[in-house]
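Lecture 7 notes: from sequence to structure.

We start with a single chain of 398 residues. Read the sequence below before looking at the structure.
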Amino acid sequence: MPRLSYLPSPTHELLLKAGLLQDERALQAWRAWTAHVRLPDDPVDGGAFRLLPLVYHNLIALGFHDPSLTLLKGIHRRTWFENQLRLRSLAGLLDRFHQAGIPTLVLKGAALALRYYADVGLRPMDDVDVLIPTERAREAIALLHRWGWREKPYREMRQVDDNVIAARHSWEFSNEAGDRVDLHWHALFTSCFPGADESFWRDAEPWTIGGTSSLALNAADALIHTCAHGGQWNPLPPVRWISDAIHILRSGAHRIAWQRFVALTQWLGVTLHVRDSIDYLIKNFDAPIPAEVLTELARVPVSAEERRVYVCLSSAPTGVLPSVARIWHSYRRYQTLWMARASSRPPIGLLAYAQATAGQPTPLHLIRRGLQLIQRDVPAWLGSAGKSRIGRAANPPQ
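Now the structure, written as tokens:
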């Protein structure tokens, strides 16, 4: 199996250890990282940059003081300020949904930063995520339009239609002020079938933000959501899920009913995502998870189709063939879960699913996108093959 892209690189892992471990190992990791990266001269990728506020806070807590931390202090302050603006926008949006009678459940960054981190400056976020009931997605989108929010274009697709709601779990919206919200009608991209979110809603915890009442996932469900969402390929290294999971566990592990955790993981169809994530957390970050949880997850039957989808979603789509395979296996899994959980066929077929997930509004757009990928990839394939032939010919027999 190829290396899973959501697991950190060695340099990312050093930063994570500097930000999460609570003993001398954190200092050792920081020294090892700074031996290879000189701030501010050397560039860091987005995944690493997101971890720097956490590293600053942890090293200061361990009594480490060094001129190199001055830059990190500024990054922490900027993150805190930007997050305050996002949380203020979120509170206003939640209040409007509340007045319209639409229930809301806050996901990901905003809920995690406020409920599990020491301060909101430790957990950068680019947008806010709000879950609404699936059956009210159309109503919520109409309200967003009325309030001045518009869909963020995804490739060639400019608006959310019924196929998008059937195939996808969310869509990003923005307003003229630059605020961004990812509106979810399903909590997870892997689980878009009837009833997928019932447990999330039923066992959510009341929560208030900016004086507005909403809901947040309980600790167990937040951990499942973090592991499942983090366990997918992302052009920006998605290593932040590790920090989120550790913070959830440190403050909420004692409240997790692990048998329910395993059962819900299976129901959602994310056993492999969660199992491998938990295994990594235990081995590398002393995660307070009972060993028998891994044993129980290993006993959950997993189909060959689910394994193929897991590999596709967890690996970078590097060309047209991997992209096609990703769509095909994702649809098969979507279809299988829908039929198993709802005892009926999904409302859309492969073509409509491919259009919605690939961001192509018509079959013609989808075909054109495929031809663009082929046009991009074929020269690289031919060039690679040509280099191989030249290389062999350049080495005469001995």
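Residues 69-99 form the longest helix (31 residues). Keep this in mind for problem set 3.
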